[in-house]
Design a protein that fits this description.
The chain is an all-alpha fold and 56 residues long. Helices cover 50% and strands 0% of the residues. It is globular, with a radius of gyration of 13 Å.
Length: 56
């Protein structure tokens, strides 16, 4: 999935432990995505769409 035309592409590096990776892997199917990178992109887009006061 590519970045929208008006948004520059950015590289994000995550350091996850084994438990976090397992949680991500279990979330792939319910989120309807095929791989970890797609799930992370989806989560970042959802987070960015929140109003600033709703972000934690």
């Amino acid at each position: 999935m590519s970045a929208p035309q008006d948004a520059p592409a950015r590289r994000v590096v995550l350091r996850l432990n084994q438990q976090q990776l397992e949680l991500i892997d279990r979330s792939l199917g319910p989120a309807g995505v095929a791989d970890r990178a797609s799930l992370i992109r989806l989560a970042l887009r959802d987070y960015a769409a929140l109003a600033p006061e709703d972000r934690r």
